[in-house]
Amino acid sequence: MKITQARLAAVAALTSGAAAITCDKASLQSAFPSIATVDFAQWMPANSTFSIPKGNVAYPTSPTKLRAACAVQVSVKNGTSNYGFGLFLPDDWNGRFLAVGNGGFAGGINWLDMAAGLGYNFAVMSTNTGHNSTSSDGKWAYHNEDALLDWGYRAMHGSTVLAKELTTAYYSNPILYSYYSGCSTGGRQGLRDIQLYPEDFDGVVAGAPAWWTNHLQPWTTKVGSYNLPNTSASHIPVSLFPVIGAEVMRQCDGADGVVDTIISDPNACDFDPNALLCTPASNASACLTPPQLNTLFQIYSDYVDTNQTFVFPHLWKGSELQWFVLLGGLTNEPNNLGDDYVKYFLNRGPQWQWQDFDYGVVQQADAEDPGNATADDFDALSRFQARGGKLLHYHGMSDGLIATGSSVYLYSKILQTLAPKGVNLDSFYRFFLVPGMQHCSGTPSTVNAPWYFAGANQAGSVSTSVSGVPGFRDAKHDVLLAMMDWVEKGVAPTEIIATKWVNDTLQDKVMRQRPLCMWPKKQRWSGKGDVNQASTWSCE
Ligand SMILES: *[C@@H]1O[C@H](CO)[C@@H](O)[C@H](O)[C@H]1NC(C)=O
Ligand SMILES: *[C@@H]1O[C@H](CO)[C@@H](O)[C@H](O)[C@H]1NC(C)=O
Ligand SMILES: *[C@@H]1O[C@H](CO)[C@@H](O)[C@H](O)[C@H]1NC(C)=O
Ligand SMILES: *[C@@H]1O[C@H](CO)[C@@H](O)[C@H](O)[C@H]1NC(C)=O
Ligand SMILES: *[C@@H]1O[C@H](CO)[C@@H](O)[C@H](O)[C@H]1NC(C)=O
Ligand SMILES: *[C@@H]1O[C@H](CO)[C@@H](O)[C@H](O)[C@H]1NC(C)=O
Ligand SMILES: *[C@@H]1O[C@H](CO)[C@@H](O)[C@H](O)[C@H]1NC(C)=O
Ligand SMILES: *[C@@H]1O[C@H](CO)[C@@H](O)[C@H](O)[C@H]1NC(C)=O
């Protein structure tokens, strides 16, 4: 690996005359500027459990069976900006830095995703984004512009800068390469960071990004309102979502050429919802009335408002089994991720209710963009491209939280902005759809799609001790290893093989593997052999 003279000189300057930095609070503190305070530093022998510090309501799950490492937590006060971050510094360092992301409005250090990164021997960092909260709670943002800016981008950038300084000082060596991996809000954080600070990361893996947050959040309330109030004749009860999903499966599964419980081309399916209409012959608990079919029509339609303004794309066919998140669980309200944004990010106040929603909410969100969080500076990605950065973006086709079409739209906006300037998108940005995957991870048991490729949150969604892709630790099956090959060896991924294990334990038998294709290519089965083997598929 090449280390430039300039980088070596920078390290020499940083470490000259200073005593070696060790894993204790005072020693680590000596490597920091005064804005940063080391809260604790604790060396963990191999196979340890890291006990999550009290008060971390966002990420309470303790990772287990860790590699030997120094665990550090840091608090930062930088003018009006306040945030913290956690850092694992492995004994057996791979010379590289990884930052991981957060989810929803979560305020807390994501130690569980950090642990998955530690399994590759990265020095790995997560920021708390500047506040304490669960992922669906936005109250902290009320009339608090500084907390919003920290959440929007400041905490990620500042944490990255400081964690890199600490990493360099601890090892007395430069960082060879820096990576980022996050999903949902984590996907947004990665995109926003490289739009503002193209030098922060050499490679960014962004899953199901909440990039268009100032439209996504209002849409969350809008789409929820289609199915409310729950006493209305047009309300579709949660119990009917699997019924709708089964009918979509019946009509759309074969549209990709193979009937295999995986819908991989939902837009090629000419779905006829009238097959669900209640008639005297129907099973009354497995059909929809005309007003309910009207609601279904709304759910499958883009949100377009005044003057034909496109606000947000619709949920895709095949996402029905995750609809309980946005379309009514047991409450009579849209999801908090929409309502809290309007109440506390747009400062309409706690009295605001979803019945008050109108296009003015979208206009205000457009004008204010709370926290400067929306990752829509497509043009800025040319700076990331120019300095050699690589971006890998993916989205599950069965996502019921962030409409899959918002990622397709992101791809087209980046294309429309950069292609006219002569930028070859494939040279630095590649997008992959994941048939049958829900939001960031998982697949319904009636679908059983290959969904695991070591994307952000995936290891943590099945276990407290998994890292990477067990049994398939290579760049063909592991998106982070694929990114490393792209950045370090110039080997760009054309497909990623996703894996589905029996029972999702990552230890049972492999049930299915299948390549995910680089957009706009689609999966095509060869027509010969076992559809559950990746080798019988290609991307065309
Ligand atoms: C790791 O710790 C667990 C208990 O937490 C123990 O059962 C196991 O034997 C240990 N493994 C190794 C390799 O030390
Ligand atoms: C978050 O919680 C921690 C632990 O309880 C506390 O020390 C810290 O002050 C809190 N931060 C904010 C911004 O409220
Ligand atoms: C501190 O704040 C300054 C001014 O806003 C900003 O430029 C800098 O990136 C911040 N640094 C960190 C480490 O947060
Ligand atoms: C009617 O539909 C419900 C819900 O899908 C199902 O549980 C039940 O078995 C069906 N009844 C008959 C008689 O098919
Ligand atoms: C819609 O278009 C009309 C005519 O161009 C314009 O006067 C009006 O302000 C627009 N409304 C909104 C909400 O943008
Ligand atoms: C409607 O919402 C109310 C309030 O949350 C709840 O108590 C009730 O069970 C819901 N009814 C249905 C049919 O879901
Ligand atoms: C918001 O981001 C833009 C770049 O996208 C930048 O020009 C502007 O200064 C930022 N505003 C704040 C308040 O951080
Ligand atoms: C999967 O789980 C089921 C029960 O949840 C169990 O009966 C079955 O043996 C498991 N399969 C494997 C391969 O472990």
Shape type: globular
Order of strands, main sheet, comes to 1-2-3-5-4-6-7-10-11
Euclidean distance between termini CA atoms: 35 Å
**Separate helix tally:** 14
Which ligands occur here?
2-acetamido-2-deoxy-beta-D-glucopyranose
By secondary-structure content and strand pairing, the structural class works out as alpha/beta
Backbone CA Rg: 23 Å
Pattern of helices and strands: HHEEEEHEHEHEHHHEEHHHEHEHHEEEE
Number of DSSP E strands: 15
The percent of residues in helical segments reads 25-40%
Characterize the biggest β-sheet: 9 strands, mixed
Low-confidence stretches: none
Strand percentage: 15-25%
Mean pLDDT: 95
Task: Please provide a written account of the structure.
This protein has 540 residues and is of the alpha/beta class. It has a domain at 218-368. It is 29% helix and 17% strand. It is built from 14 helices and 15 strands. The strands form four sheets. A nine-stranded mixed beta sheet has the order 1-2-3-5-4-6-7-10-11, with helices on both faces. It binds 2-acetamido-2-deoxy-beta-D-glucopyranose (8 copies). One 2-acetamido-2-deoxy-beta-D-glucopyranose is lined by residues 76, 78-79, 81, 158, 161-162.
